[in-house]
Protein 1
Amino acid sequence: MLLLIRRLSILSVMPATSTVFFRHAVLFRFGRFNFDESQLMEIEGLSLEEIRAYDRLKRLLDVLVGGLFFIIFSPLLILITLISLITGGRQVFISQDRVGKNGSLFKMYKFRTYGTRDGRNEITVLGRVLRPLRLDELPQIVNIIKGDMSLVGPRPELPSFHKLGSDNIPGYSLRLLVRPGLTGWAQINYKYTVTVEEYRIKTAYDLYYVARRSFYLDLKCLLKTPYALAVTVFERENGQ
């Protein structure tokens, strides 16, 4: 009987133990890297010519994986669309001008999460659920399949933010050598930016990715994204 109790006790802590092991032994070690934000000024001297062989492979992977994601998430896309129609009426989707590869503009798709009430823009009830989980960005799978975006890359910026970066950050335009991404090195390793200095640091992460992009680095970004998203949601819930 004592032996059985001991075995049950061990089994009861297995889920928590497995989670801790996966977080620290896999995610942390797999995602760990050496990066000094001062490299921003040095990175301009690196060879940032397109790695054409990998970029062609990456485009193929974007189409294949993007198509697979579209099939997997289509029930969720349909569900969100129906809920949005019922609770908020038409205009389920919105499109925004964003700066893409080589500075070209494209329309980035999102679920509408804001509405007008008493002449003011307010987040919708559905938006309160979608935005923290980044589910409002699911329609960008279409942008990936079309070739406007990639699964991994620098975040596509609004033209106004692009101008801010170009005017104040040396080497900023080098981030446009690749397609912008649904997720990326800067998104999973740095916080939401408010000041120009924070934006400069975030750009350093983007340029780090551009200079060293590879299948291995893309895989690290994809594997760390769910964990980084979970941390962001947890911090918001705790008011951090």
Protein 2
Amino acid sequence: MSDVPPFIVAIPARYGSTRLPAKPLRTLGGVPMVVRVAQRALQAGASQVVVAVDDDRVAEALAGQGVDVCMTRADHASGSDRLAEVAAHYGWADDAIVVNLQGDEPFAPAAGIREVARALAEDDAPMATLATPITDAHELFDPNVVKLVRSVDGRALYFSRAPLPWARDAFAADRDTLPAGVPFLRHIGIYAYRAGFLGRYTGLTRTPLEQAESLEQLRVLEHGFPIAVRLTPEPFPPGIDTEADVERAERWLSTQP
């Protein structure tokens, strides 16, 4: 890990969830989900791990885990807004690298967490994220899967729920298989920011494309800020959003040594 710059991991963990009540405290293999996420951040080698909470019960679950807990307001519109409050609370230097690891990603690979930090360090963009190749046509056409295209210098050009890019000639003939040589990419929702950009980001006005696609990262592009994109070195298992996801995760854990 010597080539990975120092980085902070900040984990927004909101107690309330419409689809999965008390989500951070849902247990997976007997361990609260928020604890599993914090453990992943520690395994990645973060210089500091902060969990941004809005409920004392989540803070209590993290006692003795070797991470900082920051109580934040309950009315934040997004995880990024919650992390901006955390950055202001700790007074992180403007150039500090802050990785936003979602509180519902209990199986995020440590290598991926390090890679998004490295991506930001090696680019002068204020923000970075990860992607992975799409090899299945069903995945490309699924609106719940966020796609992206990037430039030759590895920066995001656009994010969309629609199939992207559109292989015109190939898809005119067949939409059941993906044509070779087209860089289809699925976005992975982990971000790294320079701490100084967090406050600025949350102050940006909402934008038409962001609202049309319901993708917050488009606000950054529409306001003219670049986003560096790297391929993840290891797969990111799906996050936990529903009861079905919890059951799937429990079945997967039961197969692990």
Protein 3
Amino acid sequence: MTSNTPNPNILPANSPSSGTGVVGSSSNVSPTFSPLYQQIKSLITQSLQAGEWKPGELIPSEMELAARFKVSQGTVRKAIDELSAENLVVRRQGKGTFVATHHEARAQFRFLRLAPDEGVPHYPENKIIEVRRLRAPAEVARLLEIKSGDSVVFIRRVQSFSGVPTILDDLWLPGVIFKGLTAERLNEYKGPMYGLFETEFGTHMIRASEQIRAVCADAVVAELLSIAPGTPLLNVERVSYTYGDKPVELRRGLYLTSQHHYRNELS
């Protein structure tokens, strides 16, 4: 295992790449056919991205959307099924389909994968250690798809479960999007951080890419997590994306797993 001191200006050389976009077209490549429901899905996603329907709001019914796009309800239903599977919308029996929001309990645990070995999962308490603006180092800029030297907001926090420090998070956010984000605002806000990003900065996280490796706590990390130096930790590096596959958060979390485990579902 390796030692891993948090540093807002340095990321490991093998941090996750942001190269997840669609491969560029070539004159030698034949155009591909897009099923009608996929076209409708794209149009609905564009409306979500444009803010036509806000997080938590009811979207038009399948019948209304079918009339709007001049397609069958079955085509709309298939498009919404995929959007629901991707957690962009939420179906509620007897009520309709709503834009997904990070304020829902189910959404909070979608991005928090650390679960207790015993008992029911619950959201941790946050302690903000540091919030400051700095110029994006080259690696941070590359992963956030901004220019090196552009403004970023750096956040360091400790998350505790039942009073036990368990996660040390370092986050980098594009400064142009998160103007006005301060330690005071983060400390005032009692809900999930992604809920704050959604409500006050109009940024909805819809997916994330992660890399996980094992490390050892060095002296700095050990002090922040109240553990002995050399304690095994999970290092979880994440790039989170909003609509249009735009990266809007780079995060490195150091997870103590003596009483928790990292949970994932594959489908």
